[in-house]
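Sequence in, structure out.
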Amino acid sequence: MAYLEKIENDLFDIADRLKEIDDRYVLYFNKTLWRFEIHANGVLQLAVPFDRLDARTLFYARETRLENMRKLVERMDKENDRLDKIKRQKIIDDCLAKAEV
């Protein structure tokens, strides 16, 4: 795939350090989509959501692994609940403010 450039050497050794997480991980830069991608066995595993390679990439790769999925979903659910509560409170406050006018 000509649009994928394999990254073997980078400033913070992210390509090598990804192997500590999963020895099948290979780091690429997708020249079409302008993003870093992590592949395993020739299949895209995740698109790196950052524009540069640093410790966040390693954290993200660890966090999104299948064995961590339950914790990740729980965190997402808690955050969604928190945001829903804020949204509901804003609706209530807006209604009360309009009722007072």
